[in-house]
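User: quick one, sequence for these tokens?
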């Protein structure tokens, strides 16, 4: 396990490199919960170049036995919590997308309803036109019939004259 630690406040002291020395707590398997003081620039691969000193004695055997397992469980729980949170965020996003889609579809239905209404009005207008066309057609045939009768009448008159 890599070295991990938590910072805590203390009166400022400085390393030879000029960086502040801070008291921290180790959470490695070897030194779980053991406090130390180290330069802020101190990293695992640079130990020796910067200030480093344990503040507390080595963690007791019982602590070494129990703490790493507890830490792993804690980290597992943290991972689980993170995964659950991410899942929740994804679900929230999915929900938002679905709501957006629903809104769009509602909008589309509104438009379609309006179009439907417009078409209904058009049908009414067309029906009116068909009706007036039929009436005009009826009158046309009436006129044609009248003309025909007049022609017949005059032909008959001619016959009478001759
Ligand atoms: Zn240093």
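Assistant:
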């Amino acid at each position: 396990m890599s070295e991990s630690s938590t910072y805590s406040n203390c009166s400022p002291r400085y390393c030879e490199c000029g960086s502040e020395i801070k008291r921290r707590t180790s959470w490695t398997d070897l030194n779980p919960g053991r406090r130390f003081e180290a330069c802020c620039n101190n990293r695992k691969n640079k130990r020796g170049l910067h200030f480093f000193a344990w503040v507390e004695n080595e963690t007791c055997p019982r602590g070494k036995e129990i703490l790493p397992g507890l830490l792993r469980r804690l980290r597992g729980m943290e991972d689980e919590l993170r995964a659950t949170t991410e899942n929740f965020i994804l679900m929230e996003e999915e929900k938002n997308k679905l709501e957006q889609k629903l809104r769009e579809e509602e909008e589309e239905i509104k438009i379609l309803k309006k179009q439907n209404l417009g078409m209904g009005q058009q049908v009414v207008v067309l029906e009116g036109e068909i009706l007036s066309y039929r009436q005009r057609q009826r009158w046309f045939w009436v006129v044609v019939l009248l003309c025909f009768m007049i022609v017949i009448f005059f032909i008959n008159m001619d016959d009478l004259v001759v």
